[in-house]
Amino acid sequence: MNTAPGQVTLVGAGPGDPELLTLKAVNAIAAASVILVDDLVGEGVLAHARPDARITYVGKRGGCKSTPQATIEQLMLGAAQAGENVVRLKGGDPFIFGRGGEEVESLRRAGIEPVVINGITAGLAAITSLGAPLTHREHAQGVVFVTGHPQKDGPGLDWVRLGESARDLRLTLVIYMGISSAALIQAGLLAALADGTPVAVIERATLKNQRQCLTSLREMLSDLQHCGLGSPAIMVVGDVVTGVREALRAPMLADQSA
Ligand code: SAH
C-alpha cells in the first residue's frame, strides 16, 4: 500500500453510452487504484479501469439497498488517506443531482480537496438523443433542471409555480426522478401550461435499450402507463420537444433505432 497522501477525483460518467465519457474522465479512471461506482454508471465505462483497480459498487444493485452516503464518504476518505488514487464514478454529471456537492464538502472537512470532472448530464443527453435542443430562440430562452423526487420531510416542489415560470419566462423543464410523481407533476403543470404542451419522456437515454414516449401534458400519465416506462427516465416539458426528429414523432413509443 502507498504511503503518500492519496487523492480523490469525482468523475462524471455521463448518461450511459461510454463514448460520451470525456478524455479527462477516461484518464482519471485509467489511473485509479480504487473506484467507487454508482448505480447509473454504464457498463462499458469501467473497461477503462486498470486490471488491478479495486472496484466497489455502492449503488442499489441486485435489489440490495444502496450504501448509505456516510459510508461512501468514509470509504473515499479511508482509501485516500491510505495513499490510494480514488475515483468516485457518478452517473451523468457529479454536480447535477449527484450529491457531488455533499461529497466535496465532506472531503474538504477532512482536509482533502477533490478534483471534479464534469460528465454529460442525463437531461441534456436524453433530448439530444431524439434530435431536439433544450433552448431555441423561438421556443425557450432558458432551461430548468428540477428533481421530481420530493424532499424527505420537506414540502414538494411547487409544480404550479414552476409551470407559471415556464409559461411566463419561456423555459424548458427537464425533470429528473419524476416517474413516481408523474401524477402530481402533471396536475401541477396543467394548472399553468396548455394541456397540449409537448412532453418527451426518455428512459435509459443513450443506452442500447433506450425507450421514449412522446406525448402531451394532457396525455402524459396515461401514455406513461400505456408504454410502461419506468426509471431511470427524464421528462422534458416544453415546445422544444416539437424539434424531435420526424421518424420518432409518429409512433408514440419507439426505440432509438426507429
Ligand atoms: N448526476 C446525474 C443524475 C443523478 S439523479 C446526471 O447528471 O445525469 C438520477 C436520475 O437521473 C434518474 O432517476 C433519472 O431521472 C436520471 N437519469 C440518469 N441517467 C439516466 C439515463 N441514462 N436516462 C434517463 N434518465 C437518467
Automatic annotation (TrEMBL):
Q: Which GO terms describe its biological process?
A: methylation; siroheme biosynthetic process
Cite a single Pfam family from the UniProt record.
TP_methylase
Keyword annotations for this protein, in alphabetical order, are:
Methyltransferase, Porphyrin biosynthesis, S-adenosyl-L-methionine, Transferase
Q: In which pathway does it act?
A: Porphyrin-containing compound metabolism; siroheme biosynthesis; precorrin-2 from uroporphyrinogen III: step 1/1
- Which terms in the Gene Ontology molecular function aspect does this entry carry? uroporphyrin-III C-methyltransferase activity
Q: Which domain of life is it from?
A: Bacteria
Domain Tetrapyrrole methylase span(s) in chain numbering: 8-220
InterPro entries named in the record: 4pyrrol_Mease (IPR000878), 4pyrrol_Methylase_sf (IPR035996), 4pyrrole_Mease_sub1 (IPR014777), 4pyrrole_Mease_sub2 (IPR014776), CobA/CysG_C (IPR006366), Siro_Cobalamin_biosynth (IPR050161), Uropor_MeTrfase_CS (IPR003043)
Q: What is its EC number?
A: 2.1.1.107
What family is reported? Belongs to the precorrin methyltransferase family.
* Name listed for the protein in its UniProt record: uroporphyrinogen-III C-methyltransferase
Q: Tell me the organism.
A: Ottowia testudinis
